[in-house]
Amino acid sequence: MTLRLALLAAPLALLAACGPAEKTPAQSSGQSSDKPVAQAAPEAAQPADGSAVIKITPYVGGPLQVGAAGVGPITAATAFDQPTIQALFPKAVVKSAFIHVGDGPPGPIITVEQDNVPLLEIGKGADGGIAEIRLAAGDVRGPKGESLLAKWAALGFTTGQCRAGEGRTVNQTICVRPEAPTVSYVFGVPGWTKGGVPDEATLKAKGQLNEFVWRPAETAQVGAA
Predict the structure, then answer these.
(1) Could you tell me the CA-to-CA distances from 214 to 50, 144, 146, 163, 201 in Å, in that order?
(2) How far is residue 181 CA from its own chain's centroid?
(3) How far is the first Cα of the chain from the last one, in angstroms, to the nearest whole number?
(4) How many helices (H) and strands (E) does the chain have?
(5) Quick one: CA dihedral 77, 83, 89, 94, positive or negative?
(6) What is the reported pLDDT for 28?
(7) What digits encode the pLDDT tens for the residues 170-198?
């Protein structure tokens, strides 16, 4: 073999050893391979412990929803902590305070006010978490879209779903829907001072929704409202 033939044979031998190049589906069918080949999308990043990541959207305005699971961005897992609540309500004025109810010592609360409207009063529980959230002003919506000042007769309650208020809600009527046991509806009847639950005719004629009270599921049945 001459020197010229030996130099040509070496590259050919290397190509043969590598085997044929893998073809794309377009190349196999005789079509042009100019277009890029689509690649499988990588799997979304997951936390190392495999837990789910839930994105919480802060409240900035509009109707504030009260539901079985919580109030706006607040859930049973939310800490009773002023910076935490401020982060969830970035446009609001969030303050720590104390309130005196009954014969016991004053209890810590966090208040949330936005556009000069007192939206929330958040009470602290014995375990250090959120015990209750009271909503008595603003554009608040209940589990079925109910608004404050709605009439008792319009909300579809029966007297069997209601009980008499106590403490802060004395002479008011507390009603709860079976599908949302964590949400109490506080109805007032102007001039009612007899205690107990007014008769159905009186509630239909005068009862109006004054306040929502939300509690975590484990404490929803504790307290008057």
Answers:
(1) 31, 14, 14, 16, 27
(2) 16
(3) 103
(4) 4, 12
(5) positive
(6) 43
(7) 999 999 999 999 999 999 999 999 889 99
165, 174 contact by CB (below 8 A): yes
**Which stretch of DSSP H or E encloses residue 4?**
helix 3-18
Nearest to 185 by CA among 137, 142, 125, 132: 142
Q: For the residues of 95-122, what is the DSSP string, one character each?
A: EEEEE--TTS--EEEEEEEETTEEEEEE
- Predicted pLDDT of residue 38: 39
Residue ranges in the chain whose pLDDT is less than 50: 1-47, 51, 222-224
pTM over 0.85: no
At CB < 8 A and 24+ separation, what contacts does 49-57 make? 56/88
**Residues near 90 by beta carbon (within 8 Å), at least 6 away in sequence:** 58, 60
